[in-house]
Amino acid sequence: MAATNDAADGTPDFGKDEGRKPPAKSEQTRALILETAMRLFQERGYDKTTMRAIAKEAGVSVGNAYYYYAGKEHLIQGFYDRIAAEHQAAVRPVLDRETELEARLAGVLRCWLDIAAPYHEFAAQFFKNAADPDSPLSPFSAESEHAREAAIDVHREVLRGSKSKVPDELRDILPELMWLSQMGLVLYWVFDRSPGRARSYRLAARGARLTTRGVALSRFRVLRPLVREVHELFTDFLPGMTRTDSPPSDA
Fold first, then answer.
1. pTM more than 0.70
2. Exposed, middle or buried by CB within 10 Å (0-12, 13-18, 19+), for 209?
3. What SS3 string covers 155-186?
4. To the nearest whole number, what is the mean pLDDT of the chain?
5. Is residue 110 within a helix (H) or strand (E), and if so which, with residue range?
6. SS3 of 43-107
7. What are 211-215's contacts with CB under 8 Å, separation 24+?
8. 3-state secondary structure (DSSP) of residue 38
9. Cα separation of 72 and 37, whole Å?
10. How far is 52 from 144, CA to CA, in rounded Å?
């Protein structure tokens, strides 16, 4: 379920676009419920926050809260969508300015860390839910597909606008592998306790450099089967990315 970018007061600013028409009241209510939920999740923890508490704090009826979000899981999906939308907007100056793949990718990863910064403590509390492969809150779940595809689209643009030459047969594969690499960074960030998450920023820079080298090596025909095999490994075994339109290569 997609969320709007219009934020209510009293919570971390999700971004406001001056000059836009004011959102409809229904969208304002949706945003208010989402932002109230995120504040309570951070203050009380995800498990201890109920839909009733969210509704009361937001000043809406419980039925109204459920009208916009069928449950806490749907609120998290709204949060995922909003973070993805913010990230797509934040990377625009980087992608418009940079043409070198390493600079583009490093900038994209830094933007994500900047946007996620206010939610670090919440992410640490929430991780046990998102880490469950059967949970709809997992980034690999079917419920997370919208936000996941938005994130992969960013990496498609990272490649498409760079000077790096990418073999046609790998154009659809490499962005997914780059997103999986970003998920590794996210996992590290969740547990990073360095001041200002400085180690996560260093990891993002070094990861961008390593990924750029990997993309450069993929131009060699002899290494392309290895790239495809790595991709198949993830798509065959990671929940949410498993392909159902073709059988696995082996039993």
1. yes
2. middle
3. HHHHHHCCCCCCCHHHCCCHHHHHHHHHHHHH
4. 84
5. helix 101-116
6. HHCCCCCCHHHHHHHHCCCHHHHHHHCCCHHHHHHHHHHHHHHHHHHHCHHHHHHCCCHHHHHHH
7. 211/105, 211/178, 211/181, 212/101, 212/102, 212/105, 212/164, 215/101, 215/159, 215/164, 215/166, 215/174
8. helix
9. 8
10. 24
CA 27 – CA 33 distance, rounded (Å): 10
What are the residue ranges in the chain where pLDDT is below 50? Answer: 1-20, 244-251
**Sequence-distant (≥ 6) Cβ neighbours of residue 50 within 8 angstroms:** none
Contact by Cβ (8 Å): 41, 56? no
Amino acid at the residue 67: Y
> Is the separation of the CB atoms in 84 and 111 below 8 Å?
no
Distances (CA, A) of 38 to 58, 71, 76, 130: 11, 13, 8, 15
By percentage, how much of the chain surpasses pLDDT 90? Answer: 51
Q: Which amino acid is at 180?
A: L
- The structure tokens 């419980």 sit at 62
Interatomic CA distance for residues 184 and 112, integer angstroms: 13
Q: Angle, nearest 10°, between helix axes 120-130 and 174-191?
A: 110
Nearest to 221 by CA among 172, 177, 173, 168: 168
What residues contact 61, with CB distance under 8 A and at least 6 apart? Answer: 55
